[in-house]
Amino acid sequence: MGRSNIKNEDQYEALVNKGYSKEKAARIANTPDSGKRGGKASSYETRTKKELYQQAKKIGIPNRSKMNKKELISALRNN
């Protein structure tokens, strides 16, 4: 389809085909390291609250400064 604002077109298409909204698929496909980790990222539970906060900031989760670790994990998983 050739959307110039999508950095990882293959990942975007795969996410849309899995049922993700176009907005969420675009946000994931446009992360700087999209498609590079291959399932090797550490689980959210093993990360510090500061690391989770930085990830939430990177992807633009609102109200992150008021969230505890459990809430950050939930927001990251459901964003």
The secondary-structure class comes to mainly alpha
Give the oligomeric state. single chain
Q: Topology as H/E string?
A: HHHH
As residue ranges, the low-confidence spans are: none
- Bin the strand percentage: under 5%
Question: Total number of β-strand segments?
Answer: 0
Q: Main beta sheet: strand number and arrangement?
A: none
Q: Based on CA inertia axes, which overall geometry fits?
A: elongated
Q: Return the average pLDDT rounded to an integer.
A: 82
> Could you tell me how far the N terminus lies from the C terminus, measured between alpha carbons in angstroms?
24 Å
**Which range best describes the helical content: under 10%, 10-25%, 25-40%, 40-55%, 55-70% or over 70%?**
40-55%
Contiguous helical run count? 4
- What's the number of domains? 2
Q: What is the radius of gyration?
A: 13 Å
